[in-house]
Structure formats: C-alpha cells, structure tokens
Specification:
Number of domains: 2
CATH topology of the largest domain: Aminopeptidase
Strand content: 25-35%
Oligomer: single chain
Number of helices: 8
Strand order of the largest sheet: 3-4-6-13-7-12-11-10-9-8
Shape: globular
CATH class of the largest domain: Alpha Beta
Distance between the termini: 34 Å
CATH architecture of the largest domain: 3-Layer(aba) Sandwich
C-alpha cells in the first residue's frame, strides 16, 4: 500500500465514524498538490463562462481545494493546508469577483475552529433525504400539483428568478446581467423532454411554486447511496409563503422520486436563510456537507504558529 493509499484509507475510516452517509474520499484530481503534515490538497481554479447560470450563485473566479485530511490532529493539519492554499491563491492574483470555497463534512466539527480562524464562514449546506424518509402529512387547501409543460415556461422562469433574488439577501450573488435569458434557455430545454422533472403547484388555479429536479452524475460522490437526484430549485411565490404550498409541492415531488427508485435526494440551501434549514428538516432532510467560503479569495487570513496550535 502506498502512502497516498494509506492516507485515503484513514480518511475513509474517519468519514465512516463521523457520518455513515458520507462516501469514501474521492480521488484527488490531477495537478500540483499542496502537501503539509497530515493533509494534502490539489488547488483548482474555475472561471465561469459569461453565459453560465451558475453565476447567479457564485463568483466568476472560483478557487476550490479537493483535499484529504487525516491523522490525530485534523484541525492543525487543515490549518496548515489552508495556509499553503492562501499562498497559492495570492500568486494567482484574483480580483474582487472571486471566492475560495472548501467543502467539509457537516458533522465533522473538530476542524471547524481552523476554518473560522482563517476567516471562512459557513455559506451553504448540502442536505440529503433518503428514500422513504417521512415528510409532512398535511395538505394545503386549494393546492394542485402537476408536471410542468412547455406552455408554463414564463411562470417557471419567473418563479426561479424570484428565488434567485431572495437568495441574494443571504450572500448569494443574485442578479447578473442576462440571468433571465439564461434561466429561460435552461428551463426551455428541461421542459422539452417527455415527463420532465419540473413541477408546478397551483393555488386556486394560479402558479404558486416551482420544483426543478435533475439527476446529474456529480451528486453521486456526495453520498453513500445511489441512484441520486438533485433538487436544483424550489421556489414559492413571495406573497404565498407560509401557506403550506411549499410543503405540498415537496411532498408530491418526494413521492414521485421514491416511486421511481431514487435512493437519495440532495439540495443546497444558504446557511443565512432564516427559513430554509427548518423547512427542509421538516421535509426529511439533514445536513451532509457544509461549504465554507471566503470572498474575495485573497481574504483568507494569515494565522500565527501560536494561534494555529491553540
């Protein structure tokens, strides 16, 4: 067994002990690694295209760090790795529209102080619901849920756009030039297939909420279950929130996904959003991964050796 294999095995054991739904560590990508005592990471830089829908939720210039942290002192190891990453990012000279993001298991609290000392803040949570997990049993009155069709394109885009504007209050980027056009192009494509995973909840006959689910391959490595689905958007019209529309729609979507054999459904919500965490917990979700972020990317704090060892 090579040193890297042994290191990977140690991380796998740690994940299994912390959270049974965590998968084994993913293979590190190709690249020049940052190696410190107890940790290794491979820096990645992602520059989003001008027409990317992802610009609504993230910086244009994104720095990521796929990593392995093991050993008896994970907080110290992670702190050393963050320090090396800080130096790497500084050499890249990113601008203001940038962010450094590190994803860490939500239940692995031991290394959280290292992230806080370096200036990272919890930004988004990836939550998971397993097939058959219970959800709310009540139904909102006068709410009808149906599969969306191409004729619903205007309503679907308006609801998704409203969700992006709401997320902007909590540190998401929100409005970008041309975002409505990009949303429209994506939803037109999603609605063009037979039986799309796009649902509308109607209240008294008018569109009230949207759910848009994808089955992308990138969600597989996030959880020890398969197959998976990703809830890309769940949006309730602002004037109708708190009336049970969202719960009715979520319940319908979960029953459909359960019926076709989806074992795990994942979604992201912003940590600062005052309603998302409690709502999704009622729907049967629980935290799996937390994204910690610094923006701009150069804002990772230097930490003295004395502080790092405390």
């Amino acid at each position: 067994m090579t040193d890297l294999e042994a290191f990977t095995e140690a991380v796998r054991d740690r994940h299994a002990e912390i959270d049974p739904l965590l998968p084994g560590p993913a293979e590190l990508p190709e690249g020049e690694p940052l190696i410190v005592a107890g940790a290794v990471g491979v820096p990645r830089r992602i520059r989003l295209a001008a027409d990317s829908v992802d610009l609504a939720w993230g910086a244009e210039d994104q720095f990521r760090l796929p990593h392995l942290v093991a050993g008896p002192e994970p907080a110290r190891a992670l702190d050393r790795l963050l320090g090396a990453w800080r130096e790497h990012i500084a050499r890249c000279a990113p601008g203001e529209d940038s962010a450094a993001t590190l994803t860490w298991p939500s239940r692995d609290v031991e290394a959280v102080p290292a992230l806080l000392r370096r200036g990272f803040q919890p930004h988004a949570v990836a939550s998971v619901r397993l097939r058959g997990w219970p959800g709310p049993r009540y139904r909102a009155r006068n709410v009808v849920v149906r599969t969306a069709c191409p004729g619903d394109l205007d309503a679907v885009v308006a609801l998704w756009h409203a969700e992006i504007r709401y997320d902007a209050f909590f540190g998401q980027v929100g409005e970008r030039r041309g975002i409505a056009r990009r949303l429209r192009a994506e939803m037109a494509q999603a609605l063009a297939v037979p039986d799309p995973w796009v649902w509308l909840a109607e209240l008294d006959g008018a569109p009230a909420a949207l759910a848009y689910v994808q089955d992308p391959t990138w969600t597989g490595p996030m959880v020890r279950a398969e197959p998976t689905a990703y809830l890309t958007c769940m949006s309730v019209a602002p004037s109708l929130r708190g009336r049970g529309v969202g719960a009715a729609l979520a319940g319908h979507v979960h029953r459909r996904l359960d019926a076709v054999g989806v074992e795990a459904t994942l979604l992201h919500y912003c940590v600062a959003n005052p309603v998302s965490g409690t709502f999704w917990a009622r729907m049967g979700y629980r935290a799996l991964w937390t994204s910690w972020q610094v923006s701009p990317a150069t804002a990772i704090r230097p930490v003295s050796a004395a502080a790092a060892s405390s």
